[in-house]
Amino acid sequence: MTSFLQELRRGLFESFESDTRVILLGEDVLDPYGGAFKVSQGLSTRFPDRVIGTPISEAGFTGVAAGMAIRGLRPIVEIMFGDFLTLSTDQIVNHITKFATMYPGVQVPIVIRTPMGGGRGYGATHSQSLEKMFLGVPGLKVVAPSLAHNPGDLLKHATLMDVHPVLFIENKQLYAQGLCDEQDSILRRRLIEDGTGYPVAVVQNIEPSPPDVTVLSYGGTSRAILFLMRKLIEEEICVKAILPASLKPVPIATISHEIDWNSPILIVEEGTSGFNWGSELAALLHERKPPTFTRQIRRLAAADTLIPCAEHLEKKVLVGEEKIEAAIMELIS
Amino acid sequence: MKFWNCRPDRGWFLNSGTMLKKIFANPIQHLPIQEMRETFYLRMLAIRLCEEKLLALVEDGLVRGTVHTCLGQEGCAVGVVSALDRARDIVCSNHRGHGHYLTYSGDISGLLAEILGLQSGVCGGVGGSQHLHRDNFYTNGILGGMPPVAVGMAAAEARLGSGAVVCVFLGDGAMAEGSFYEALNMAALWKLPVLFAIEHNHYAQSTHWEKQHAGKLEARAQTFGVPVMVVDGNDVESVYAAASVSIDNLRSGQGPGLLFMNTYRLGPHSKGDDLRPLVERDIHWKKEPLVRLSKKLDTTWCEDQIKNVSAQIDKISEGLLAGAKQ
């Protein structure tokens, strides 16, 4: 069983092999170091003139990649930690996404990839899930592979096929994890393609039962959710997880089709509470629910504060298995 | 003596749009000195009168939004952009980019229409004054934002082997943005063909540059190993000569260069009041680029051109406004 990281790396290499316009820029991406999370390991040896190690200038090199994309290259920008994405914000909000909209005939096929997520004790500025800040940027696609997706396929699509700017959200805790694919011996996973190249993953732990609860989530929290789904089989609690890869635009047609409107819905994300992905999903589901739907829609996210370093303090703030399990139990009781 | 009327073979006809476009389009590199001067004068004049027309339209309530005119800085725009190879070179500009745009494209009609919000504008009215794009010309309204983009464009062009040079314009105000230094560093580190064209016009909106900057502005790029040429921005011929040398160096792969042009912003920051002392502005009106160059030209010729170009621009403007009413 391959890991998230191995598949991601495969997708990166295959993107480079398929198209000579693909470039990677980022800090410390060159071999032998191969990137802070080793995603680009081996790449600069294989493609020496297409992997650029940059100075510590996130705003600058995101802008550089924007210029490259406008003039015909297909750059992938690696922002070492998702927390540093704030430094690139002006280029994303006021340059990249606007050029693609207001300049006639101009495309900006850029992929900005970055790992978000806590749980490793890195502290307040190295643990955040900041993608929620970028969901509201017009013209920006936000994609986050979960463990039920193939991250390499998603990266390939974003790099080779998608002409729009894409923010590609990875998660530190996912890199070492094994994927849940169609060969998983316990969970059943389906990938629902909708023509966008970013499928919705649907996972069930007990079939063909109707679910006791539907869990709607993405990216990093898929780890805790899939773990719980395996555990809850013993207690005969049927969980259906719907995990879109595209956070924005929201594949709401597919999601609302997959939802079982007889069960409660739990929306989980790793970012902080309020004004987030869950808020949007809850509103969208409210607009689409059938009149017969009387169950709860509940949202679960991290506390609205910073992420402390010490393990016990970090656990209090972040969303982990215990909190998700407690929420599920509460919803189905 | 009316020079342009005596040369029908050049096609300098009394045809509004065509004549103005030709002013900007005709290549000047091998022209004899006096004709080159005339071309420079006409280009700067067209920019000046177009900017004044825009301010008049604003006064009349016909322009929605704002404009940032480049009155007094025409020598910088004309001198630098005339030295570029417009078939392949790239220009990145800023909010005060009308002069750069006109020298690059000759498209007075498209610019006016854009600012008037008409669909016939160069960006269909979507971009307006600050967000222009056409061919290899790009402007945006965030100071300090375009230098990194320009560096990336140069990196792409270098890889594609086009031989293109990227020129990015900014003012002394934008030299306080950190992203400018990030761009300068990467351009120098990777030896990219970027010309940083600084228009030191002394004011950032309402603030004098000495209130914003410590140290010497011209000296900043040197610490990155980037050669700096300091030039009188109001002497268009000097600007053209310096830009030409810079651009040649860039094309030979020596890495980026910085052209530091001393000039002065004659008009207000945008369309509002100009609170700078009149005494100060009057001094600079006496040494602005058109006045400077006219000393080397026939006075009557200059006066005739002012009337002629003014009439052309009036015609274009009236045509657009009449069309808009329909």
Estimate the helix proportion of chain B, in percent.
40-55%
How large is the count of helical segments of chain A?
Answer: 10
> What percent of residues of chain B are in strands?
5-15%
Q: What fraction, in percent, of the residue positions of chain A are helical?
A: 25-40%
* Biggest sheet architecture of chain B: 7 strands, mixed
User: Which of globular, elongated, flat, extended, rod-shaped describes the shape of chain A?
Assistant: globular
Strand order of the largest sheet of chain A: 2-1-3-4-6-5-11
Q: How many H/I helical runs of chain B? A: 11
| Strand order in the sheet with the most strands of chain B | 2-3-1-4-5-9-8
Termini distance of chain A? 36 Å
The chain-level mean pLDDT of chain B equals 93
Spans of chain B of 5+ residues with little confidence (pLDDT < 50)? 1-16
Largest interface by Cβ-Cβ < 8 Å: A-B, 30 and 33 residues
- Helix/strand structural class of chain A: alpha/beta
Question: How big is the Rg of chain B?
Answer: 19 Å
Structural class designation of chain B = alpha/beta
End-to-end distance of chain B: 42 Å
Please trace the helix and strand order of chain B, writing H or E for each element: HHHEHHEEHEHEEEEHEHHH
Which outline of chain B best applies?
Answer: globular
